């Protein structure tokens, strides 16, 4: 299978992007997965229960073992979550543990020193039971548990210095369907090599035992390899392939609904050129989303008109007024707001984004009368690193594939104030009213009440436009003649156990 190079070593608690997550999803089993109606169902967990949405009891299924044969215990989850949350460890996923009681003790914020090493809200009751106490009720907690950050961690992952070892990052020991055959040396190894773990208690594939992730810097090269049968699965076909993929692959080509969103990101906190909301609105109104969706993507994208994707409850058609194409109004607004005369538009060249970014650049040149320069980064890792370091000051291509099926997941991790330092809030957007409304949604008595608050928080995003939604994804993937029954789950990860040799 094709992937782009993971941003970090293969450590679940520090992996918040899709390439590394795809590999880790093969190595680990989540506590919950999701059914056809997008509801969480127990996988490595036997049960996840609560009476008040504040204190949660997670019981583990017996029979799961680490790839070295030792039993998986509740303490392995507590270890992983505490490690991720501790500020000194600087893990990319730490923000996901922010609702657990005691998080502020282990992660007090920039310039402050932690007063504890473990969160008081995590209690190991016995080998198979973990009790989690949150600071406030959060009805979506069970739904979150399918995300990469909530995988467990074996004791052997931690070195004598109290830190995750380089060896573990290169060859993590998981408790999932596949084990790693050898260490993966990021930056030099062209593949990640895995084998089916014999003692895995869940469903295993029939007729094959080896899985190889092949690292590409060009989606087009991967498409060529798929056509030449040198690759079995390509799960994100480039825009250049979509027009012909159906005729080339026949029933081996898939075009399915997807819960992801493609944005133009704005470095609000780091570039004063974009701080006037009218500039952002003008840029948004200057983008011809329908033509990009129809022409560049051959109709396999939909113009975005909300920050919440239609696949998830909470989406409202036409919610984003500034997402309506209006070039005349855009130019007038841009000029009156004294928008910048030159703009750089960064994107990762390994993800098949060149065509639509250049289309956006052409829209902005023609409709705003400005100079726009697309800037390719060779790898997704490159632009993420530049954004993490707060170094990149141009507009940037960004996408969001959901971590778990909730409207809240389109809000907190990307636009919450707490996600600036440790989440995916690359633009540095901060709005107290937004944070407060999300918190009210989190603490609502039921999902319907919570959704009202999440939509009110969404309304603030629609007014502020910290990012500019451009399109809703569809999942465009294909496979070789050598395999059959290829399916992607809600998180856009391959369901490996279902695949058979053709």
UniProtKB/TrEMBL annotation:
SUPFAM superfamilies xrefs: Periplasmic binding protein-like II (SSF53850)
Gene3D superfamilies for this protein: Dipeptide-binding Protein, Domain 1, Dipeptide-binding Protein, Domain 3, Periplasmic binding protein-like II
Domain named Solute-binding protein family: residues: 40-419
InterPro entries listed in its UniProt record: Peptide/Ni-bd, SBP_5, SBP_5_dom
A Pfam family the protein falls into: SBP_bac_5
PANTHER family, sorted: ABC TRANSPORTER SUBSTRATE-BINDING PROTEIN, PERIPLASMIC BINDING COMPONENT OF ABC TRANSPORTER
Protein name (database record): ABC transporter substrate-binding protein
Organism name: Nonomuraea salmonea
Lineage: Bacteria, Bacillati, Actinomycetota, Actinomycetes, Streptosporangiales
């Amino acid at each position: 299978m094709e992937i782009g190079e993971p941003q970090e070593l293969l450590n679940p608690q520090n992996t918040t992007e899709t390439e590394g997550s795809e590999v880790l999803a093969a190595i680990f089993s989540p506590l919950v997965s999701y059914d056809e109606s997008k509801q969480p169902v127990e996988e490595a967990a036997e049960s996840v229960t609560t009476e008040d949405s504040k204190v949660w009891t997670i019981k583990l299924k017996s029979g799961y073992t680490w790839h070295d044969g030792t039993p998986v215990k509740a303490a392995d989850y507590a270890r992983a979550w505490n490690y991720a949350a501790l500020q000194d460890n600087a893990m990319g996923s730490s923000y996901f543990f922010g609702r657990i009681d005691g998080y502020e003790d282990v992660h007090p914020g920039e310039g402050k020193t932690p007063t504890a090493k473990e969160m008081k809200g995590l209690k190991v009751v016995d080998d198979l039971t973990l009790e989690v106490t949150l600071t406030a009720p959060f009805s979506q907690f069970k739904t979150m548990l399918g995300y990469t950050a909530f995988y467990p961690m074996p004791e052997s992952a931690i070195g004598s210095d109290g830190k995750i070892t380089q060896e573990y990052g290169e060859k993590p020991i998981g408790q999932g369907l596949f084990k790693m055959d050898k260490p993966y040396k990021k930056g030099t190894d062209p593949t990640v090599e895995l084998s089916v773990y014999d003692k895995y208690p869940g469903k295993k594939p029939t007729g094959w035992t080896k899985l190889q992730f092949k690292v590409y810097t060009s989606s087009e090269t991967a498409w060529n390899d798929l056509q030449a049968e040198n690759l079995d699965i390509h799960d994100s076909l480039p825009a250049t392939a979509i027009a012909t993929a159906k005729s080339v692959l026949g029933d081996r080509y898939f075009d399915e609904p997807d819960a992801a969103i493609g944005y133009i990101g704005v470095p609000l906190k780091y570039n004063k050129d974009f701080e006037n909301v009218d500039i952002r609105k003008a840029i948004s109104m200057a983008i011809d989303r329908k033509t990009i969706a129809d022409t560049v993507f051959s109709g396999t994208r939909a113009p975005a008109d909300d920050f919440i994707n239609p696949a998830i409850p909470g989406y409202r058609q036409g919610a984003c007024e500034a997402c309506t194409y209006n070039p005349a109004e855009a130019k007038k607004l841009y000029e009156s707001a004294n928008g910048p005369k030159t703009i750089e538009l960064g994107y990762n060249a390994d993800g098949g984004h060149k065509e639509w970014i250049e289309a956006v650049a052409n829209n902005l040149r023609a409709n705003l009368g400005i100079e726009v320069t697309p800037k390719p980064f060779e790898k997704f890792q490159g632009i993420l690193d530049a954004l993490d370091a707060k170094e990149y000051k141009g507009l940037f291509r960004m996408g969001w594939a959901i971590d778990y099926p909730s409207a809240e997941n389109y809000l907190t991790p990307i636009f919450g104030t707490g996600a600036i330092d440790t989440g995916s809030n690359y633009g540095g957007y901060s709005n107290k009213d937004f944070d407060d409304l999300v918190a009210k949604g989190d603490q609502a008595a039921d999902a319907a009440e919570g959704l009202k608050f999440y939509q009110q928080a969404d309304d603030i995003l629609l007014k502020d436009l910290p990012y500019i939604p451009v399109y809703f994804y569809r999942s465009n993937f294909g496979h070789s003649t050598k395999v059959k029954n290829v399916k992607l789950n809600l998180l856009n990860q391959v369901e490996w156990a279902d695949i058979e040799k053709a």
